[in-house]
Amino acid sequence: IKIENRTHAPLDFDEHTPSTIISHAPGYINKDLEKIVGLQTDEPLKRAIMPFGGIKMVEGSCKVYGRELDPKVKKIFTEYRKTHNQGVFDVYTPDILRCRKSGVLTGLPDAYGRGRIIGDYRRVALYGVDFLMKDKYAQFSSLQKDLEDGVNLEATIRLREEIAEQHRALG
């Protein structure tokens, strides 16, 4: 830890294996003494790459620390697997892209490599409360037929409840 703090760089990282809950074998500091077992990777202080958030961030990090991202990982996350950032950019309107580029809008979800759902607190800045409330009402109403027909009833009821709570929170 002292070396990592002094150099402001990770001691090691795995540029070949995208991080998932099962991507690395469990690593331990002292297995017999640990109450919560396993580290993020197979060795203490070894970092994992997280390309699901955005492949460019991972490539940039590898480059900064003198490593090259595994070409197979790059190919998968540029040709076959959509990253969080690509998903976000796919839904941005031309106006949002221009505002983002000019700096009028900041804190948009492409700046964060976690999760895919944009919280409504960010959507307020993008779309306005009135639009969001109408959209929530439309989402709620669109589930009426599924509810009446008993289609995936548990999930439909749960979703309607969540949408109703979101609508109330906006009002």
TrEMBL record:
Coiled-coil boundaries: none
PANTHER family: FORMATE ACETYLTRANSFERASE, FORMATE ACETYLTRANSFERASE 1
Chain ranges of the PFL domain: 1-171
EC number(s) stated in the UniProt entry for this protein: 2.3.1.54
Gene: pfl
Protein name, UniProt field: Formate C-acetyltransferase
Lineage per the UniProt record: Bacteria, Pseudomonadati, Pseudomonadota, Gammaproteobacteria, Pasteurellales
One GO cellular component term noted in the UniProt record for this chain: cytosol
Catalytic class of the enzyme: transferase
Keywords: Acyltransferase, Transferase
Statement: the UniProt record of this protein carries the keyword Transcription: no
Top-rank taxon: Bacteria
GO MF terms held by the record: formate C-acetyltransferase activity
Gene3D superfamilies: 3.20.70.20
